[in-house]
Specification:
The protein is mainly alpha-helical and 334 residues long. The chain has one domain: Orthogonal Bundle (Farnesyl Diphosphate Synthase), CATH 1.10.600. The protein is 72% helix and 1% strand. The protein has 19 helices and two strands. It has helices spanning 3-7, 15-18, 23-26, 29-37, 42-53, 59-68, 77-100, 111-114, 117-138, 141-162, 172-196, 203-227, 230-233, 239-242, 248-253, 259-270, 276-288, 291-309, 317-331, and strands spanning 104-105, 108-109. Strands 1-2 form a two-stranded antiparallel ribbon. A hairpin with a 2-residue loop joins strand 1 (104-105) and strand 2. It is globular. The two termini are 26 Å apart.
């Protein structure tokens, strides 16, 4: 059975089922996050309160804790590393929302919208410095090296994207380099550090797994923006187009467009506030020109590469959860 046929037979595993083998330790991660984030400063506590209400699905900590449990010998520090992983991710979220001037994330106000862009930038810096301080406290240079390298790659990826003056000239190879830096680097780091905190001989394959899974995750996320409605995603469908972001569906469709279709795309990118009707029209053009099919194809390729990296792991409930995480990434709706 191919990965694609298994993906919908009958439905990908729910995240709660994937997290079952590490549930007790995962439940401790939010406590560690809030402990690390604490500061006796009113504005910091106000923003922290807002961020607590925006608690995500802890997907990266889930992967780290699963990787640490491959040989059923997870180290206690894995919970702290999982919290650091989520803090590094949260840093990127706060900074990215400010850079993009986003006002909503999953239906809730962003930090920059609720407070200010200045507060968002400084809070992102604060969260990252607290994460690094926690790694220093552990007294182990390897997690520090891996997470700072991932953070550097994420930042450089964002800078490369901002320095692209002609967004519509972005190629597939440019896109893959970007999502490898902005998304896959941290997912790979989380899986690698998890293995080091319980199953060090699987460090290399878990790094490969995480990087390929991160690529699949971002491709799937970019597809959701074209295919799902606001009630599901918590943000308007076509929001990337609205913000003039070029992702794989559009990149793959552009070479197949007629001059008239390309003109409609150009008009969207020339309009600072494109209408819902214009967005819907371009979404339709992208689908008609094969952009969605190409993105699904590449997402499945990355997913299959992620699964291949797990081939040498011992059979266990944890290994099954890692396999199921691939299906979850490709079949999720938000």
């Amino acid at each position: 059975m191919t990965f694609e046929s298994r993906l919908h037979a009958p439905v990908a595993a729910a995240l709660l089922d994937i997290q079952a083998p590490i549930r007790e330790r995962l439940d401790r991660v939010p406590e560690e996050i809030w402990r690390i984030m604490q500061a006796d400063v009113a504005i910091v506590e106000a923003v922290n309160g807002h961020l607590r209400g925006m608690r995500g699905k802890l997907f990266r900590p889930t992967l780290l804790l699963l990787a640490s449990s491959i040989e059923e010998a997870p180290e206690e520090r894995a919970v702290v590393l999982a919290a650091v992983t989520e803090l590094v991710h949260l840093t990127s979220v706060v900074h990215d929302d400010s850079v993009d001037h986003s006002v909503l994330r999953r239906g809730q106000p962003t930090v920059n919208a609720l407070f200010s862009h200045q507060v968002a930038v400084l809070m992102g810096d604060f969260l990252f410095s607290k994460a690094i301080a926690e790694l220093v406290r552990l007294g182990d240079l390897e997690p520090l090296r891996v997470f700072t390298q991932a953070s550097n790659e994420m930042t450089l990826g964002e800078l490369r994207q901002l320095s692209s003056f002609d967004a519509l000239s972005f190629s597939e190879s440019d896109y893959y380099a970007l999502i490898r830096a902005k998304t896959a680097s941290l997912v790979g780091a989380a899986c690698e550090m998890g293995a080091l905190a319980g199953a060090p001989r699987f460090r290399a394959p878990m790094r490969r797994f995480g990087e390929h899974l991160g690529m699949a995750f971002q491709v799937a996320d970019d597809l959701i923006d074209y295919t799902e409605q606001e009630s599901v995603t918590g943000k308007p469908s076509g929001n990337d187009l609205r913000e003039h972001k070029v992702t794989l569906p559009l990149i793959a469709a552009i070479p197949q467009m007629s001059p008239a279709q390309r003109g409609r795309v150009d008009s969207i990118f020339a309009d600072p506030t494109p209408s819902d009707a214009s967005i819907a029209e371009v979404v339709g053009i992208v689908a008609e020109c094969g952009g969605l099919d190409r993105a699904r194809e590449k997402g499945l390729e990355f997913a299959e590469e992620a699964e291949a990296a797990l081939s040498g792991l011992p059979a266990s409930e944890v290994r099954q959860s890692l396999f199921d995480a691939v299906g979850y990434v490709m079949d999720r709706r938000s």
